[in-house]
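Course assignment 3, question 2. Fill in each field.
Student: A.L.
Task: Predict the tertiary structure for the chain below.
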Amino acid sequence: MVTEAAIRALEEAGLAAWPPASLRVDGSHRLGMTLGHPSKRLNCLTVLDPRDTAGGIGRLDREMRLFLRLGLTPYFRQTPLTPPLYAEEMDRRGWRTMDETDVMIRDLTAPHAIAALPPPSLPVRPVDDVSAFATTLARLRGHDAEAARQTVAVFERVATGLRLWQLDQDEEPIVVGMGVDGVDHAGDRLIGLFSITTATAARGRGFGRLLTQAMLSDAVARGVARAWLQVEVDNDPAQRLYRSLGFIPHHPYRYRVPLGF
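Answer field:
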């Protein structure tokens, strides 16, 4: 059974790994805002305690209005920790649901888990130049130069444990990914895997698997206990890949947005 403490630890780890430019903390309410970046995670309200409803629905409305003042879409990140009062009110108002996602986790300590990580058949290399990595990531995702610049700013806000990886073919990057170290609710070392992105022409050929295996092997060598990531429910290729690599569902989340956005 997944506990509230375990869910909160991964949600906190996600905030630390992809920190917004501005983070307002009010109890368990985390309101992040980042002008100029398309990431919903960087521009959303998350509540990390289902009992933290002091102020009622008025508190929720006040927080969501802060996005509107800055011209941002008011996203709410709904997790199993979202207070039922808020979830029921969003349902009553007909707020749209977006990006249904599974947070998945993999044990890296069991002997069979380590044995299931063969070395990659193509060279995977760490990347030290965060600007070059952000530019490559933006290009692979079809984002513009401003998004790349904002991604560099995100990397600079990561407090510790940022690891960037890239796999090249014919001297061209075809898949990239990032990892961020953290700690779970039991004090064990974690690594979160994010932004694993493959060039469109190279998809379906196993390059994402090679990069993920290399990132996991590096984590095992450093004594990390568990790896985690997030993948949208309807992304069947990614779901199959990560499940085949030993990841199992931990908890879901989704974004909610008022009608009209």
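Instructor remarks: Residues 183 and 189 are 5 Å apart (CA to CA). The radius of gyration is 19 Å.
Grade: pending
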